[in-house]
Structure formats: C-alpha cells, structure tokens
Amino acid sequence: MDKAILGIDLGGTFVKTAILSTDGKLLAKHEEPTQAIDGLDAVLDVICVASQKVISSAGLANSDIAACGIGAPGPLDWRSGIVFTLTNLPGWKDVPLGAIMSDRLGIPCYLENDANAACYGEFWRGAGQGARNMCLLTLGTGLGGGVVVEGALLRGPDGTAGEIGHMIVERNGRPCGCGAQGCLETYGSVTGLVRTAREGLEGGEASALRERCDGDWDKLTGVMVSEAAEAGDAFAHEVIRTTGEWLGLGIANLLNLFNPEKVVLAGGMIKAGETLFQPIRETATRTALDVPAARAEIVPAGLGENAGVIGAAGCAWERFSQG
Amino acid sequence: MDKAILGIDLGGTFVKTAILSTDGKLLAKHEEPTQAIDGLDAVLDVICVASQKVISSAGLANSDIAACGIGAPGPLDWRSGIVFTLTNLPGWKDVPLGAIMSDRLGIPCYLENDANAACYGEFWRGAGQGARNMCLLTLGTGLGGGVVVEGALLRGPDGTAGEIGHMIVERNGRPCGCGAQGCLETYGSVTGLVRTAREGLEGGEASALRERCDGDWDKLTGVMVSEAAEAGDAFAHEVIRTTGEWLGLGIANLLNLFNPEKVVLAGGMIKAGETLFQPIRETATRTALDVPAARAEIVPAGLGENAGVIGAAGCAWERFSQG
Questions:
Q1: A133 CB near a chain B CB, below 8 Å?
Q2: Which residue of chain B has the CA closest to A145?
C-alpha cells in the first residue's frame, strides 16, 4: 500500500496525533494529555505513545509512515529541528526534537512552528483549498497568523515570517505584549475584543454585560460578549463590529501586500459569524486597493482543531517529497 | 559570444534602455524623450528607436539579445503583457505591449510593473545582493514598493502584491489618494514629509523654511526641508526625524511579516542620509520582534536611476530562463 504521514501537534495541554494519506485524507487521530509538568523526558514519552497509538489505530506499522511533522509553539528552528524553548513546558531548552523523534520513531521527522502548521493545514485541506496565496489569522487569546505564497509557507531566514498579529495599525495605540504599541493583536484578538468591551462599559455604555459579570470587569470574556450580542445586546454587537473593523483594516493591509486569493479566519471568535465577518469584509474591501480587494475571499476556517495536526503532516510531506 | 539582455524603462518623460550581460553587467545605456503627448504609435516608435540605439551602441544585433524586459507604471498584466492604461500617457488602453515589442524587435519581450522591476534590480545587482528576501521602498512623490521572497518577486495572482505604500499604520490618519486613511505613503513619502513640515509651520514652529518659501506653503518642497536640515535648522531636522519614525514603523511591520535579510530604501529622499536612516533604523529595531529586527539590514539603494532598467532586464532573463 501507499505510505502514510504522521502529524503531531505538541501543545501545552494535549499532544494530538493523526495519520493522513499522502493526498491529505485523515485516516486516524488521537490525543494524550501532555503532562507538561513532568518535564522533558515525560513529554517525549507522551509524544511517542500518542504516535504509536494513532499508527496502530490506523492499522499501520512505523515502516508504513513516510514522514512525520511536528508542530510546536516554539521559538524553534524549523530547519535544524531544534526547539529553543516552549512556553508552558518546563525543562525544554535547545531540544533537538526533530532528531530525537526521528530516532525514536524510526521515521524522518520535520519540525514546524504551530501557527505555520495550522496555516498550511487550512491551505492544503481546509478553507484555503484552491488558493495559491493565502493568509491565515487565528483569533484567540493572541492573534496568530501564517502566510502561503505561491503554494509555499512564507518563513523567512529565521522562520519568523507571517507575524500578522504584530502588524501595527495604530501608531500610538494599545500597548502590546511584544513591547510595541497598536499591534493588530491588541484590537483583533479575543483579548482585544474584551478590552474594547471593558473600555465601553467603564465609559458608561448600557449593556446586559454589566450583570453578566456582576460589575467585575475582570470576569468579562469573549464568549460573554458573543452571547450577549446574540441575545440582542446592542453594545455587545457594537463591540464585535468594532473588532471586525480593526480586523478588516489589518486584512486590507494583507490584501495590498500579498494579493492573496483567500484570507482564512480561525479561532474561537469566528463563532460570532456574520456579526463579525460582515464588518471585516466591508472594511477590508473598502480600504484595500480595488484589484486585490476584488480578488480576495475572506472565509472561516474549515478544519477547526485539526488544522495544526493536519498541517504538520502536510508540511512534513512537502519537505520529504522535495528531498 | 553569449547572448545579452535588453532592459526598457518606460516612463512618462523618458524611455530608458540598457544592455546587460546575462550575469547582470551593464554594457550600454541610452535614453530618449518619451513624447507621450504624441500618442501611442509615436511612443511605440520611441521605444523601438531607443532599443535599436542601445543595441547598436553595445556593438550588437537584435539576434544577440536573448530576452527583453519592459518596466511600465501600469496598471498592467505582467503575464499576458497587456498594459491596461498608463498614467500621463494618453491613448494607452489595453495595449498588448509585450506582443507588439516582441514582434517589432524580434526578441521575446516580458512586461513588468515598474516598481517590481526596480525592486528586482536592487535585489539582483544593487543593495539587495546577498539577500534571499528583500523589501524595497521607493520614497518619492508617492511611496512605491516591492518584495522579493526566496529569490522571486512577490506578485500575487493579479500582480498587485507589494503595495507597501498602502499599508495603513494609523487607523484614522491622513487621507490617501487611494481612498483609505493613514497609509504609510501619507507620512513616509516626500509628499508626506512636506505635509508634516507644512503642518508644523502652520502651527507656528520657528524655522528658516518660512523665508525659503516666502510664507507660501505651496512652494514648500522636500529638497527645501532637506537643505534646511543640513544647514542646521532644528525644525527641518525634526520633520525628517518624524518621517523616519513613520517609515521605521512601516518597516517594522515588514520585518514581522517577511523576516527579510534586507530592506532597501530608494528615491530622492535618501539623500538626507543618516538624518533619515537613524530614526528609521532605531524605530524599526525597537518596534519589530527581536529575531527579525536582528536579522534585517536597512540600507540605501545602490543603483539609483538605473534600478528600473536593470531590473526589467533581470526579470526578463529570469522568466526567459525558466521557459
């Protein structure tokens, strides 16, 4: 039979694994708690166990797997396969994860930044299918991103390209965790949305959100805002609209810079649906130059939680195929 | 002997031509007034004359030329070789310039956006040499740009990628000719610099610039500001510094998005030297993420007025070589 590919998504809470055919069909998946607190060796064991289990559940042996891709949060060096550190995983310092896993699994392993892996996943098998040029924005606590140019991940010499969340859209804007001000992340992430809501509430805006968080703004969440908007709360609706306008502005910049066929939005926030997508599309189309604005489709992601593990496998297959 | 390449830079005022060896050595160059006012056929004749003259002056015949690249302002379709319109050149509407010139010169001709051609020129033979990933910003009346990713021009499906000047860096900022607000062009071009100066002068700032333009702000030019700064005018110096900070902010975005080895600045404004480059480098380095900030060199262009014609030839050679 044809060989298959193994994808691994190493997160702080779960290690997800999947087996895919070389044309991207998902054959099996599995997940194990990462046990990050137990340190490096324990986590390496978890990765091996999660890999062996998914290989078995697909009815395969390690020798049936052509290549393995590992997505991890990093910072890391995708070329050498070395993880420099991993946020929320103690004991990880300059770990040659690619080499270790290649050795332990007997399969060529390729390391990838997790945001890039998710981007490649959506490009290869998700909402980006059919595009040659695509941008992914993952709207979560932060704003992660990735870019595909002419079918290949945009990485740059250090593998740090595609940091869409740290594109500045307001010179003296909100302070960002990166040290700069006015990054798109500070307005367009869930954290940014909550902050927009909080600023409005502190400024006296009327909203059911006041009761929902008992007047304690620290309790305010993105889900609360989303639910309030759905229930007809005008202020909550306006907060999502404002967030969408900021995102539309950032996406307009991407359209002018990359002229992509598709922009894919992922992450919990996209559950807000048209309330979010309408101002995004409106602002991006009005703001970008006419030709790239007419070209780009702005669409929700298609793979959900599986984007990372599918993309890790896809990246590995691409790199393995190119020798 | 080895074949050579012909580069043509079609501008509103001059048609520039050059002969290059296939490894990018400039063998001959020439220019003719475009005679734009005389209409399409006259300009096509000028292009032919300028081409034949430079071929002759290099001691070559048309059969010695492997490929010809034509840079034009557009909008145009680089793939099909069709020029849709040309600003400042009346009578140009959907002209298959690539096919016409291929036919008239008996040489395969390739059409390219002029900003992209200049970008490729600097990448191939100018200040971008040695880089695999490069951004070019041309600081003139507007702010033109181009991007090279892993050795290839970033074009996108419509050839409109790389519009660095229309990256928004201030949400409700200055109105831009493109219809949006807060584009980098409105702050970082010569026009933006002059506007910054004018706003300061109207606000009552003390400066020798008041006398230089007889109190008529419409007479204010970028050269005036630059000369006043050189002569020690503190306000003029501050205007250049502010312009550099805006450019540094835009470049920080490019570092985070592209992780390039080099950012090349071209156009008349770079004559301001360190007065401009120092705030650019300072702001870009402080604002971008650490790894891409440490990677990128921000340097002045190396080819001056020749970037377009050299780049047009280089693009043609690249496309011809790839079949």
A1: yes
A2: B257
pLDDT digits (tens, 9 = 90+) for B38-64: 999 999 999 999 999 999 999 999 999
Query: pTM for this structure?
Result: 0.95
Question: Which two structure tokens, joined as six digits, stand for A247?
Answer: 């995102």
List the CATH number of the domain containing A253. 3.30.420.40
Q: For residue A149, which residues of chain B lie inside 8 Å, CB to CB?
A: 149, 154
Q: Which residues fall within 8 angstroms of residue A1, CB to CB, at 6 or more apart?
A: A64
Tokens representing B206? 């003390």
CB A260 within 8 A of CB A281: no
Interchain contact A297–B (C-beta under 8 A): no
Is residue B39 located within the same domain as residue B173?
A: no
- Give phi and psi for A238, each to the nearest 5: -65, -35
User: What is the interface pTM, i.e. ipTM, of the complex?
Assistant: 0.95
B279 in contact with A at a CB cutoff of 8 Å? no
In a domain, B125, yes or no: no
The number of C-alpha atoms within 13 Å of A157 and in the hemisphere containing its C-beta is: 18
Among B236, B172, B255, B244, which Cα is nearest to B198's? B236
| Residue numbers of the domain that contains A256 | 129-301
Residue A84 in contact with partner chain B when CB distance is under 8 A: no
Q: Which of B256, B287, B290, B322 to mutate to test the interface with A (most CBs of A within 10 A)?
A: B256
Q: Which residue of A has its CA nearest to B75?
A: A291
